[in-house]
Amino acid sequence: MTTLLDVRDLEVTYPGKGVGKKPFQALKGVSLDIQPGETVGLVGESGSGKTTLGRAILGLAPVTGGSIRYGDREIGTLSRRARRELSSEIQVVFQDPYSSLNPAMTVGQILSEPITARGVDTKQAKSRVQDLLDQVNLPPDAINRLPREFSGGQRQRIAIARALALEPRLIVCDEPVSALDLSTQARVLDLFIEIQERTGVAYLFISHDLAVVRHVSHRVAVMYHGEIVESGDGDQVTARPEHPYTQLLFMAAPVPDPARQALRRVERHHLLESAAGAVKA
Ligand SMILES: Nc1ncnc2c1ncn2[C@@H]1O[C@H](COP(=O)(O)OP(=O)(O)OP(=O)(O)O)[C@@H](O)[C@H]1O
Predict the structure, then answer these.
(1) Quick check: helix, strand or coil at residue 205?
(2) From CA 196, how far away is CA 117, in angstroms rounded?
């Protein structure tokens, strides 16, 4: 099988803003691959660089070293125009279903825009939009309604439908269920899985929530301070994490029993010290 996406030794450095501000290296030699039809979960605490990696793959972050190969093409440093052409291959679903959809456009307009922009005629585009709504379990009459008429979970379904409009091979999902309540999260996660089984799309699934990542991912990579500190089979990384930082992340996940939670706090303290040592080493 040909690797779909191959990120090697990737570095991203944000320019410093304002007088005397130093540039900030957010990714320090990140390597990760994604195979066709696969979900790679990316976990790590806030600020570890997860979104930056997703944005670099989408051409939205300043790549300062290393490479991003999509199939046999280097895409880390493409021109804007070449990037636009790639938008039928790589898509994105963002965290916030409230701000990611244009409030002035109907769902039909939102979904048909990328399709007609590719030269497809209006009639065909309309039938494709109906098919997309069906794929994400929204009713056909959604086509004439505005995003504000839908719940958060339904809006995220609209955002997923928009990402699917051009039949991409990879979708970067950046915290796509974090803004939703728990039962809605579960239904949207199952939708991601169903879509993958049907279309063979691959996901880079970014989340700070280990339970979410465990549910959807074939493989999991753990980020810490701009580096991937552990990666492997989803069950292995989540059930038997090897790196102290990964163990720490798992301990940070809340457990229902207060006594166990207290014990975890003590263990966390010890792990925190050894994780800092391991990353420096
Ligand atoms: N445009 C930018 N300019 C400068 N620094 C940035 C920029 N975007 C992100 N950073 C910094 O890069 C680091 C990584 O941020 P990033 O958003 O990738 O982390 P994250 O793991 O996705 O965190 P979160 O879960 O909070 O979104 C952070 O220290 C952040 O402050």
Answers:
(1) strand
(2) 25
pTM: 0.88
**Ligand 1 atom at minimal distance to the Cα of residue 223:** 21
Ligand 1, atom 29, lies closest to the CA of 47
Structure-token match 């970014």, residue found: 206
Q: In whole angstroms, give the CA distance from residue 41 to residue 240.
A: 16
Please tell me if the CB atom of residue 51 comes closer than 6 angstroms to any atom of ligand 1: yes
230, β-bridge pairs: 222
Cβ of 50 below 6 Å from ligand 1:
yes
Spatial distance between the Cα atoms of 176 and 92, rounded to a whole number of angstroms: 10
Q: Say if ligand 1 is within 6 A of residue 48 CB.
A: yes
Instruction: Walk along the chain (281 residues) and give the pLDDT tens digit of each residue.
Output: 799 999 999 999 999 877 778 899 999 999 999 999 999 999 998 899 999 999 999 999 999 999 999 999 999 988 888 888 888 899 999 988 778 899 999 999 999 999 998 888 989 999 999 999 999 999 999 999 999 999 999 999 999 999 999 999 999 999 999 989 888 999 999 999 999 999 999 999 999 888 899 899 999 999 999 999 999 988 888 778 888 888 877 776 655 555 555 555 555 555 556 555 655 54
Nearest CA owner, ligand 1 atom 26: 46
ipTM: 0.97
Task: Assess whether the C-beta atom of 13 lies below 6 angstroms from ligand 1.
Answer: no
